[in-house]
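Justification of resources, computational component.

The compute hours requested in this renewal are based largely on the per-chain cost of generating structure records like the one below. Each record pairs the submitted sequence with a full C-alpha coordinate output. That output is archived, and it is also reused by downstream analysis tasks.
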Amino acid sequence: MRGGFGLVGPRRERHVVPASDLDLLALPVGDDGVVIGVDAEGRSAVLGINRPTPYEVTLIGGLWTAQVLALRTAATGARVAVETGRAQVWSGLAQAAGGGQQCVTLHEVGRIPPQGASAGSPVLVIRDCGMRPPRGRVVAGPWQSVLTLLPYLSPTAPRLLQQASLVGVQRVSPDEAQQIGRLMRLPRQAVDSLPTLGDGVTLWCTPRDRQFVMTQGTDAETGLLGGPRRID
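The structure output for this chain reads:
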Protein backbone atom coordinates (compact mmCIF):
# COMPACT_ATOMS: atom_id res chain seq x y z
CA MET A 1 0.00 0.00 0.00
CA ARG A 2 1.05 3.56 -0.70
CA GLY A 3 -0.55 6.24 1.39
CA GLY A 4 -3.19 8.06 -0.61
CA PHE A 5 -2.56 6.13 -3.81
CA GLY A 6 -4.16 2.71 -3.17
CA LEU A 7 -2.73 -0.54 -4.44
CA VAL A 8 0.31 -0.63 -6.65
CA GLY A 9 -0.70 -1.75 -10.15
CA PRO A 10 0.91 -4.58 -12.11
CA ARG A 11 4.43 -4.05 -13.40
CA ARG A 12 4.64 -4.24 -17.18
CA GLU A 13 7.07 -3.08 -19.79
CA ARG A 14 6.39 0.34 -21.19
CA HIS A 15 5.13 0.68 -24.75
CA VAL A 16 7.62 2.91 -26.51
CA VAL A 17 7.27 4.29 -30.05
CA PRO A 18 10.19 6.06 -31.70
CA ALA A 19 9.45 9.68 -32.49
CA SER A 20 10.13 8.97 -36.16
CA ASP A 21 7.16 6.53 -36.23
CA LEU A 22 4.54 8.84 -34.73
CA ASP A 23 3.30 9.95 -38.15
CA LEU A 24 2.41 6.32 -38.91
CA LEU A 25 -0.18 6.20 -36.12
CA ALA A 26 -3.77 6.91 -37.12
CA LEU A 27 -7.12 6.54 -35.42
CA PRO A 28 -10.36 5.92 -37.36
CA VAL A 29 -12.11 8.96 -35.91
CA GLY A 30 -14.11 11.30 -38.15
CA ASP A 31 -15.66 14.68 -37.52
CA ASP A 32 -17.94 15.11 -34.55
CA GLY A 33 -21.60 15.44 -35.48
CA VAL A 34 -24.58 13.71 -37.07
CA VAL A 35 -24.07 10.90 -39.59
CA ILE A 36 -26.20 11.99 -42.55
CA GLY A 37 -25.30 9.16 -44.92
CA VAL A 38 -22.43 7.90 -47.02
CA ASP A 39 -20.39 9.56 -49.73
CA ALA A 40 -19.54 8.20 -53.19
CA GLU A 41 -16.78 6.02 -51.69
CA GLY A 42 -19.08 4.54 -49.05
CA ARG A 43 -17.53 6.50 -46.18
CA SER A 44 -19.70 8.01 -43.47
CA ALA A 45 -20.63 11.63 -44.09
CA VAL A 46 -20.90 13.63 -40.87
CA LEU A 47 -22.58 17.01 -40.39
CA GLY A 48 -21.50 19.07 -37.37
CA ILE A 49 -24.82 20.52 -36.23
CA ASN A 50 -23.95 21.46 -32.65
CA ARG A 51 -21.47 24.35 -32.83
CA PRO A 52 -20.35 27.20 -30.56
CA THR A 53 -20.85 29.62 -33.47
CA PRO A 54 -23.99 30.44 -35.52
CA TYR A 55 -24.63 27.87 -38.25
CA GLU A 56 -27.33 28.17 -40.91
CA VAL A 57 -28.29 25.39 -43.30
CA THR A 58 -30.64 25.65 -46.26
CA LEU A 59 -32.04 22.42 -47.69
CA ILE A 60 -33.82 22.50 -51.04
CA GLY A 61 -35.37 19.09 -50.83
CA GLY A 62 -37.95 16.82 -49.31
CA LEU A 63 -39.53 16.52 -45.90
CA TRP A 64 -38.16 12.99 -45.42
CA THR A 65 -34.53 14.13 -45.36
CA ALA A 66 -35.29 16.98 -42.94
CA GLN A 67 -37.09 14.59 -40.61
CA VAL A 68 -34.23 12.08 -40.66
CA LEU A 69 -31.86 14.91 -39.74
CA ALA A 70 -34.20 15.88 -36.91
CA LEU A 71 -34.26 12.34 -35.50
CA ARG A 72 -30.51 11.88 -35.73
CA THR A 73 -29.81 15.27 -34.19
CA ALA A 74 -32.15 14.48 -31.29
CA ALA A 75 -30.31 11.18 -30.84
CA THR A 76 -27.11 13.13 -30.10
CA GLY A 77 -28.82 14.76 -27.11
CA ALA A 78 -29.71 18.04 -28.78
CA ARG A 79 -33.17 19.56 -28.66
CA VAL A 80 -35.05 20.08 -31.93
CA ALA A 81 -37.60 22.87 -32.36
CA VAL A 82 -39.71 22.68 -35.52
CA GLU A 83 -41.41 25.82 -36.83
CA THR A 84 -44.06 24.58 -39.25
CA GLY A 85 -47.42 25.28 -40.80
CA ARG A 86 -48.12 21.56 -41.17
CA ALA A 87 -47.82 20.18 -37.68
CA GLN A 88 -49.74 17.04 -38.69
CA VAL A 89 -46.76 15.69 -40.67
CA TRP A 90 -44.39 16.24 -37.73
CA SER A 91 -46.57 15.11 -34.83
CA GLY A 92 -45.75 11.40 -35.14
CA LEU A 93 -42.02 12.12 -35.16
CA ALA A 94 -42.29 14.46 -32.17
CA GLN A 95 -44.13 11.78 -30.18
CA ALA A 96 -41.72 8.99 -31.13
CA ALA A 97 -38.44 10.86 -30.62
CA GLY A 98 -36.67 10.87 -27.29
CA GLY A 99 -38.21 7.73 -25.78
CA GLY A 100 -40.92 9.69 -23.99
CA GLN A 101 -38.86 12.81 -23.37
CA GLN A 102 -39.93 15.98 -25.16
CA CYS A 103 -36.81 16.55 -27.23
CA VAL A 104 -38.70 17.55 -30.41
CA THR A 105 -41.20 20.39 -30.05
CA LEU A 106 -43.57 21.84 -32.67
CA HIS A 107 -44.41 25.52 -33.04
CA GLU A 108 -46.62 27.54 -35.37
CA VAL A 109 -44.96 29.76 -37.94
CA GLY A 110 -43.80 32.98 -36.32
CA ARG A 111 -44.54 31.76 -32.79
CA ILE A 112 -41.41 29.87 -31.81
CA PRO A 113 -40.11 31.09 -28.43
CA PRO A 114 -36.45 31.59 -27.43
CA GLN A 115 -34.86 28.18 -26.94
CA GLY A 116 -32.13 28.97 -24.40
CA ALA A 117 -29.45 27.02 -26.22
CA SER A 118 -26.17 26.29 -24.43
CA ALA A 119 -23.17 24.00 -24.69
CA GLY A 120 -24.94 21.54 -22.41
CA SER A 121 -28.24 21.84 -24.25
CA PRO A 122 -27.69 22.58 -27.97
CA VAL A 123 -30.65 23.24 -30.24
CA LEU A 124 -31.50 22.69 -33.89
CA VAL A 125 -34.31 24.87 -35.20
CA ILE A 126 -35.96 23.45 -38.32
CA ARG A 127 -38.00 25.97 -40.30
CA ASP A 128 -40.57 24.14 -42.43
CA CYS A 129 -42.46 27.22 -43.52
CA GLY A 130 -43.17 26.64 -47.21
CA MET A 131 -41.86 28.39 -50.31
CA ARG A 132 -41.68 31.86 -48.74
CA PRO A 133 -40.57 31.47 -45.12
CA PRO A 134 -40.84 34.72 -43.18
CA ARG A 135 -37.78 36.05 -41.42
CA GLY A 136 -37.40 33.98 -38.29
CA ARG A 137 -37.83 35.32 -34.77
CA VAL A 138 -35.33 32.75 -33.53
CA VAL A 139 -32.06 32.96 -35.46
CA ALA A 140 -28.82 31.02 -35.46
CA GLY A 141 -26.52 31.67 -32.51
CA PRO A 142 -24.00 29.90 -30.29
CA TRP A 143 -25.10 26.25 -29.92
CA GLN A 144 -28.23 26.96 -31.93
CA SER A 145 -28.23 25.99 -35.60
CA VAL A 146 -31.06 26.72 -38.01
CA LEU A 147 -32.10 24.53 -40.93
CA THR A 148 -34.54 26.06 -43.43
CA LEU A 149 -36.40 23.58 -45.65
CA LEU A 150 -37.49 24.74 -49.10
CA PRO A 151 -39.47 22.27 -51.23
CA TYR A 152 -38.34 24.04 -54.41
CA LEU A 153 -36.34 27.06 -55.48
CA SER A 154 -38.36 30.12 -54.49
CA PRO A 155 -37.92 33.91 -54.74
CA THR A 156 -36.49 33.87 -51.22
CA ALA A 157 -33.96 31.16 -52.05
CA PRO A 158 -31.13 33.43 -53.30
CA ARG A 159 -31.06 35.30 -49.99
CA LEU A 160 -31.16 32.08 -47.98
CA LEU A 161 -28.44 30.43 -50.07
CA GLN A 162 -26.15 33.43 -49.76
CA GLN A 163 -26.42 33.63 -45.98
CA ALA A 164 -26.26 29.88 -45.37
CA SER A 165 -23.12 28.21 -44.06
CA LEU A 166 -24.14 25.02 -45.86
CA VAL A 167 -26.61 24.28 -48.67
CA GLY A 168 -28.21 20.94 -49.46
CA VAL A 169 -29.80 20.35 -52.86
CA GLN A 170 -31.88 17.35 -53.81
CA ARG A 171 -33.48 16.61 -57.19
CA VAL A 172 -34.63 19.82 -58.91
CA SER A 173 -35.73 20.80 -62.41
CA PRO A 174 -33.12 21.69 -65.06
CA ASP A 175 -34.02 25.39 -64.79
CA GLU A 176 -33.66 25.32 -61.01
CA ALA A 177 -30.36 23.46 -61.36
CA GLN A 178 -29.02 26.24 -63.60
CA GLN A 179 -29.99 28.93 -61.08
CA ILE A 180 -28.53 27.01 -58.15
CA GLY A 181 -25.37 26.38 -60.12
CA ARG A 182 -24.88 30.12 -60.64
CA LEU A 183 -25.62 30.96 -57.01
CA MET A 184 -23.35 28.25 -55.59
CA ARG A 185 -20.69 28.36 -58.34
CA LEU A 186 -21.14 24.68 -59.10
CA PRO A 187 -19.19 22.96 -61.88
CA ARG A 188 -21.11 21.94 -65.00
CA GLN A 189 -21.02 18.24 -64.09
CA ALA A 190 -22.71 18.89 -60.73
CA VAL A 191 -25.36 21.13 -62.32
CA ASP A 192 -26.20 18.51 -64.94
CA SER A 193 -26.58 15.82 -62.27
CA LEU A 194 -29.08 17.70 -60.07
CA PRO A 195 -32.21 16.89 -62.17
CA THR A 196 -31.33 13.17 -62.13
CA LEU A 197 -30.56 12.60 -58.43
CA GLY A 198 -32.25 9.64 -56.82
CA ASP A 199 -34.44 9.80 -53.75
CA GLY A 200 -32.30 10.22 -50.65
CA VAL A 201 -29.35 11.74 -52.53
CA THR A 202 -28.29 15.28 -51.58
CA LEU A 203 -25.56 17.53 -52.87
CA TRP A 204 -24.19 19.32 -49.79
CA CYS A 205 -22.12 22.32 -50.78
CA THR A 206 -20.48 25.59 -49.87
CA PRO A 207 -18.98 28.05 -52.36
CA ARG A 208 -15.70 26.11 -52.12
CA ASP A 209 -16.59 22.47 -51.34
CA ARG A 210 -19.25 20.01 -52.42
CA GLN A 211 -20.14 16.39 -51.70
CA PHE A 212 -22.89 14.02 -52.82
CA VAL A 213 -24.36 12.03 -49.93
CA MET A 214 -26.78 9.12 -49.96
CA THR A 215 -29.05 9.03 -46.90
CA GLN A 216 -30.67 5.71 -46.08
CA GLY A 217 -33.06 5.25 -43.20
CA THR A 218 -32.45 2.82 -40.38
CA ASP A 219 -35.11 0.21 -39.64
CA ALA A 220 -36.60 2.47 -36.95
CA GLU A 221 -36.55 5.54 -39.21
CA THR A 222 -38.13 3.64 -42.10
CA GLY A 223 -40.83 2.27 -39.82
CA LEU A 224 -41.69 5.78 -38.67
CA LEU A 225 -41.12 7.84 -41.83
CA GLY A 226 -41.24 5.37 -44.68
CA GLY A 227 -38.59 5.12 -47.38
CA PRO A 228 -36.58 8.00 -48.88
CA ARG A 229 -38.60 10.30 -51.12
CA ARG A 230 -38.09 13.67 -52.73
CA ILE A 231 -41.75 14.58 -53.21
CA ASP A 232 -44.02 14.75 -50.15
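The helical segments are 63-75, 91-96, 157-163, 174-184, 188-193, 219-225. Residues 1-12, 24-30 have pLDDT under 50 and may be disordered.
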